[in-house]
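Q: Could you predict the 3D structure of Transposase?
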Amino acid sequence: MGLKRTDEFLQDAVRIALTRGLTRKRLASDLGVELSTLNKWITAHRDIDVVSKEDLNLAQENERLRCEVRILKGERDILKGPPSSSQA
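A: Sure. Here are the predicted structure tokens for Transposase:
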């Protein structure tokens, strides 16, 4: 039988999963729980006021910006061209 987690632990796990930009797999590993368990907690508690609307909006904006940074870095790398080999 698994370890019984406190409600506070569960709520913190859901809040972190929804706001920190970590993969669920990584977070589950960090917390020492199975991925399926973390997913169940998130599904069951997503709509409860575990995360404020402001925090959720900030998390969504952070994810949008991370995606934009990945795209811009890719474009920058394309514009740089292939690495040049220096001949001395």
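Q: Anything worth pointing out?
A: The longest helix spans residues 53-80.
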